[in-house]
Amino acid sequence: MLVIRRLVDRQQAYTALFLPGEEPRIFPSTDYEHGRILQIYKQDRPYTGVHNDFSEFGLGTPPPVTPVKSGG
């Protein structure tokens, strides 16, 4: 399983890629670049059949919406 995380210190932001059994790959990146990496690896939103933070932990899942009856 691939884990992608954003790391930020006082001067620089980084993208970190973690794969089991391999050394972490950490490199400087802008917010745009990090977002694009998430898109490429399908980690930016829920996808059918893809396990990521959204599917595993429900992060970013909108709360249920209660229908409102229209007047009339």
Explain what this protein looks like in three dimensions.
This protein is α+β, with helices and mostly antiparallel strands. It has a domain at 3-50. The chain is 21% helix and 22% strand. It has two helices and three strands; from the N terminus they run βββαα. It has helices at residues 31-40, 53-57, and strands at 3-8, 13-18, 25-28. It has a three-stranded antiparallel β-sheet, with helices on one face. Strand 1 and strand 2 (13-18) form a beta hairpin. It is extended and about 60 Å long. 3% of the residues are buried. The mean pLDDT is 81.
Short recap of the structure:
This protein has a domain at about 5-50. The protein is about 20% helix and about 20% strand.
End-to-end Cα distance: 53 Å
Strand order, sheet with most strands: 1-2-3
Main beta sheet, described?
Answer: 3 strands, antiparallel
| Uncertain regions spanning at least 5 consecutive residues | none
List the helices and strands and how they pair.
Blueprint: E1 3-8, E2 13-18, E3 25-28, H1 31-40, H2 53-57
Antiparallel strand pairs: 1-2, 2-3
Region (Disordered): 53-72
Name its key features.
three-stranded antiparallel sheet; 2 helices; 3 strands; alpha+beta; 72 residues
